[in-house]
Amino acid sequence: LIPDRTRMLLGPTHALLRPEFAHLRAAAKNRDRAWPPQRVLVNLGGVDQGNATRAVLETLARTELPDTSTIDVVMGRNGPNIDDVRACADASRLSVQVNVDVDDMGARMLAADIAVGAGGTSSWERACLGLPSLILSIAENQLGIAHALDETGAAVNLGPLWVPGWQDSLLAGLSALSVPGRLAEMSGTCLTLVDGNGTARVVQEITRQQLTLRPCTADDAERVWAWREADGAPQYYQSGHSTPWNTHREWFENALKNPRRMLFIVDDEGLPVAHLRFDLADANLPEVSLVVNPGLKGKGLGLNTIALAVSHACGAKWPGLSAKVHENNAASVQVFEKKGFRRVGRNGAFLQYELELSEGVRS
Questions:
Q1: pTM for the complete prediction?
Q2: CA 228, CA 238: separation in Å to the nearest integer?
Q3: What is the tens place of the pLDDT at every residue in 257-280?
Q4: Over the range 183-213, which residues count as b (16 or more CB within 10 Å of their CB) and which as e?
Q5: In angstroms, how far is the first alpha carbon of the chain from the final one?
Q6: Is residue 215 reached through a cis peptide bond, with omega within 30 degrees of 0 on the bond before it?
Q7: What DSSP designation does 310 have?
Q8: What is the spatial distance between Cα 320 and Cα 7, in angstroms, rounded to a whole number?
Q9: Could you read off the pLDDT of 81-91 as tens digits, one per residue?
Q10: Suppose 130 and one of 28, 185, 204, 272 were both cysteines; which one would form an S-S bond, judging by CB atoms 3.0 to 4.6 Å apart?
């Protein structure tokens, strides 16, 4: 039923998440999750259908979780069972905190060792932060997600809320997670599925121009030099000053022969609109830089050129990209940050950025 021309943006690579999750991924990769869990996140939707949260708390209290474990319950303000859940929390042998309408869900997922959650969008949020979870489907449209995540080893599927016996599945699932190394393995699987940049990819596809990459030739040297010298751009380069034509031409010719440098022209239906360069370091991530035709600035070319760079990196199966941007080059700073590059430091006046490309994204 779908026309051949349709571009289908499917799967967890295009999960529409808030920016906070991509920003927290670096910390999530360094997170050491081990058994027994010190913190368990419980979030079963804003309405808490069927008072499922209370049933989960009662089940957790029957497990061998140590008394020192903290249960972080998150609920919506319109849930009809908040008072009942609070009463259950007060009576539990575990330390249970009931929180309503929080605005720091990403931080709570990062702090948790495991989660008991529903199978909607929050599944992708948990995966983005490498949080192992036990999924209770609270709606029909969550069944497929829960099953697929269970099949990949990123979660434990407890089944649907409306089928009796899911509490027993929760007990069995927790027992399975106690196997040494299981939490770490599951966390790693989660991280390969979702990188938090799905929203940017969808926007990119909706707004992108018909741009293509072609390798530079010697005939492009003068064009690239003119673009690099325009509008005071040299002040943002590491040299800090203009480059004479003869110096640039010699550098360009040598760069074309250098296997550790890759120079491209970005064409818009045959019209050269930007220059893209990759410097391939031996130990670090390939470094990307760009310059846009000064007569075409303000048309989103910077964003779309970096999108092409990311696509090229994915095709080359690089683990990621890096960039150095002058702190006063506001336009370039905005381009890299909008495309999901994370600031990792600085070297003098230059801000250093990195973009991680997970296995799931590269494939």
A1: 0.62
A2: 13
A3: 999 999 999 998 788 999 999 999
A4: bbebbbbbbbbbbbbbbbbeebeeeebebeb
A5: 26
A6: no
A7: H
A8: 25
A9: 999 999 999 99
A10: 28
